[in-house]
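stuck on this one:
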Amino acid sequence: MTMNKKKHAFSPNDFVVYPAHGVGKIVSIETQEVAGFELELFVIAFEKDKMTLRVPTHKATDVGMRALATPDVVSHAMKTLRGKAKVKKAMWSRRAQEYEQKINSGDLIAIAEVVRDLHRLDDQREQSYSERQLYEAALERLTREIAAVAGHDENAAAAEIDSVLTSRAA
């Protein structure tokens, strides 16, 4: 069986966002035989999580894999962080579910909303364990993508996000 090389939306060394895992880097495109069929796969490495994911090339967009956000989207996310927290009066379990969906959507703006809504200043009430877990997951996703887009390291991106979050309270 011969493989015809198709042009892909992504190529090796591209950074991509996989909704359930955040920012990863395509290390290669490989072909594997699965159940007698030749399957072309993107091999994506997630450095921080020490994880490798293989995504069929023809399914990449269907599963929500996308290129990094544009600088415009990043500045919109930063603007979102500056906004006032919108906390619904729904039960925590319902809100937690919504936050989880936003984080796993891979949408940078939705992730910024979660960070904004769950961020606590020192003088505010303590976060519950599950609240802190969601906040940290969202913050990590936001930080990694902003760092990758800007070409900074994650510490610089984290400092930028932190300054935005603390300045909105002033």
Confidence is low (pLDDT under 50) at residues 1-5.
